[in-house]
Design a protein that fits this description.
alpha/beta; Alpha-D-Glucose-1,6-Bisphosphate, Chain A, domain 3; 3 domains; five-stranded mixed sheet; globular
Length: 476
C-alpha cells in the first residue's frame, strides 16, 4: 500500500488504509523530516479533531515523535486546525501535526503537516515525507515508539492548552467595540467538529447572544459530511429563519473553513464572505496588499482588486499554494471557494473561527443585515451566482482527463463563446461573464465541476455541460 499526500495531507478510510500501523509509518516519516531540518532540540505540536479515534491516533504520533528525540506538545482536547497552527508559531516548533480529515465523510481520517510558520506544509515537504516512508519500508526500518505514559513522565510528551494564546492574538485582529454595541444574535454550528465551544466562547466574550447547535461529540457527524455548504446546513438555515437571529455561522470538521447563513435562512457562500471581507479591509481598515485566490474562486475578487488597484494572483486549489504567496509577499487576503481563508496579520492558515468573527464585525460596523450587504455587493460587482457539482467516479487518470479536455475544447458553453482555457488546476473555460472549471479532487475519487455566472439558470446549464464533458472523456 502506497501512502500518498494530496492537496492537504494524507487521508484514508479508517481501518482500511488509515490504521495505527500506517499512522506510525507516517509519523516516522515526519520525524525524519523534522530531524533533517532541526537535529538539535526539535519540537512539534500535535493536535486532533473529533473523528473516530483521532485522539488515539494523535497519541500514536506523539509516541513516535518522542521516541525520535522530538519534544511533543499535544493538545488536551480536540482542537481546531488554525489553533494548532497558531501554536506551532507561538511555541516556535519545528513542525506541527494535525489528525483530521477536515470536511471529508466520517469514515475518513487524515494527517496534516504544518510548517514552522504556522500553516500548511508545502507540496515539497509532503513529497519528502513520502520519500522517507518509502525509504524506511525498503530498509525494513520499523517506526520507533515509546509508551505514552513514559513520554509523559519524561516530559518528552507535554499536554497543553493552545487556546489562551490564540485568543489573545485574535483580539489584535478583531475590533470588539462595534460588536459589543450591536446586540448581535447568532447561531453557531460547528457541525460536531473541533470548533465546538471555541467560536461560541469568543462571540459570548464580546456580548453576542449565541446558541450553539451540533456542539456535542459525535464522530459520525450526525450522518452528514462536516462541510459547511448548503446541502449540509439545513438545520442551521431552518433554525436561523425560525428564530429570527442576526446570522448563522458554521465551521467544518476542523474549523479551518467557514459558511454563513443570513437572517432569512439563506446560505451565504465563501465567495461572498471573501468579497465582503476584502471590501471591509480596504474601505474600513485602510489596508493594502495582494489578493490571492484559488482557481475555483469568484471573479468578484478580480473586480474588487481592479477597483482598489490591488495585485491579484490565482493559484491551484489547496491552501498551501496561497501560503506560498503569504510567506513571500504582503497579502491582504487569501482564500478559496471551499471556505478556507485568512487575512493580513494572521497566520498563513485557513481559519473559520477568525473569519466568522470578522463577518460579525462587518455586520456590526456597517449595520443592516447580511442580506443587505450581499445585495449591495451584487450592485457593485455582480450579480453573481455560483454552484459546484461533485460527481463520484471510478479510478481514472487525472492527467489524461485534463489533456483531453484542453486539447479538444468546446467552442461554446451554454450558448456563450469560450474566450480562454487554463490548465492551472484541472481545466477552466472562461466566458465573457462566466466560467466553468472541471477538476479532479486531490483527496477523494471525485470529479468536481464548478461554475459562476450572472444568473442561477446559466450556472446550472454550465454544470450540466461540464458533467457531460468530464464524464464523457473519463468513459472514452
Amino acid at each position: 500500500m502506497s501512502i500518498h499526500f494530496g492537496t492537504d495531507g494524507w487521508r484514508a478510510v479508517i481501518s482500511d488504509e488509515f490504521t495505527f500501523a500506517n499512522v506510525r509509518k507516517v509519523a516516522q516519516g515526519i520525524a525524519d523530516l523534522i530531524l533533517e531540518e532541526q537535529p538539535l532540540a526539535p519540537t512539534a505540536v500535535v493536535g486532533y479533531d473529533t473523528r473516530f479515534l483521532s485522539d488515539h491516533y494523535a497519541r500514536e504520533v506523539a509516541r513516535v515523535l518522542a521516541a525520535n528525540g522530538i519534544t511533543v506538545l499535544i493538545t488536551q482536547r480536540d482542537t481546531p486546525t488554525p489553533i494548532v497552527s497558531h501554536a506551532v508559531l507561538e511555541h516556535q516548533a519545528t513542525r506541527g501535526v494535525m489528525i483530521s480529515a477536515s470536511h471529508n465523510p466520517p469514515r475518513y481520517n487524515g494527517v496534516k503537516i504544518k510548517g514552522a510558520y504556522g500553516g500548511p506544509a508545502m507540496p515539497d515537504d509532503a513529497r519528502r515525507v513520502e520519500a522517507f516512508i518509502r525509504d524506511n519500508e525498503r530498509r525494513h526500518r520499523s517506526p520507533a515508539h515509546i509508551p505514552y505514559e513514559e513520554g509523559l513522565r519524561s516530559e518528552r510528551i507535554i499536554p497543553f492548552d493552545p487556546f489562551p494564546a490564540y485568543e489573545r492574538h485574535i483580539w489584535t485582529l478583531i475590533d470588539r467595540d462595534p460588536i459589543a454595541a450591536a446586540h448581535v444574535q447568532a447561531i453557531v454550528d460547528p457541525m460536531y467538529g473541533a470548533g465546538r465551544g471555541f467560536l461560541r466562547h469568543l462571540l459570548e466574550h464580546v456580548g453576542v447572544q449565541v446558541e450553539e447547535i451540533h456542539g456535542e461529540l459525535n464522530p459520525g457527524f450526525g450522518g452528514i459530511h462536516p462541510e459547511p455548504i448548503t446541502r449540509n446546513l439545513g438545520p442551521l438555515m431552518e433554525r436561523v429563519k425560525a428564530s429570527q437571529r442576526t446570522i448563522g455561522l458554521a465551521t467544518d470538521g476542523d474549523a479551518d473553513r467557514i459558511g454563513a447563513v443570513d437572517e432569512d435562512g439563506n446560505f451565504v457562500d465563501p465567495h461572498h464572505i471573501l468579497a465582503l471581507a476584502l471590501r471591509y479591509l480596504v474601505e474600513e481598515k485602510g489596508l493594502r496588499g495582494k489578493v490571492v485566490k484559488t482557481v475555483s474562486t469568484t471573479r468578484m475578487l478580480d473586480r474588487l482588486a481592479q477597483r482598489y488597484n490591488l495585485p491579484l494572483h490565482e493559484t491551484p486549489v489547496g491552501f498551501n499554494y496561497i501560503v506560498e504567496h503569504i510567506l513571500a509577499d504582503r497579502v491582504l487576503i487569501g482564500g478559496e471557494e471551499s471556505g478556507g481563508m485568512t487575512i493580513q496579520g494572521h497566520i498563513p492558515e485557513g481559519d473559520g473561527i477568525l473569519m466568522s468573527l470578522l463577518l460579525v464585525e462587518i455586520l456590526a460596523r456597517w449595520g443592516g443585515t447580511l442580506r443587505d450587504l450581499v445585495e449591495d455587493l451584487h450592485r457593485e460587482v455582480g450579480p453573481v451566482a455560483y454552484a459546484r457539482l461533485d460527481y463520484r467516479v471510478e479510478s481514472f487518470s487525472k492527467a489524461e482527463l485534463v489533456r483531453r479536455l484542453s486539447e479538444d475544447p468546446p467552442d461554446t458553453l451554454a450558448g456563450m463563446p469560450v474566450r480562454d482555457i487554463s490548465t492551472l488546476d484541472g481545466v477552466k473555460y472562461t466566458l465573457d461573464d462566466a466560467w466553468l472549471l472541471i477538476r479532479p479532487s486531490g483527496t477523494e475519487p471525485v470529479l468536481r465541476i464548478y461554475a459562476e455566472a450572472p444568473r442561477p439558470e446559466i450556472v446550472q446549464a454550465l454544470l450540466e455541460e461540464g458533467k457531460r464533458l468530464g464524464i464523457g472523456h473519463i468513459k472514452r
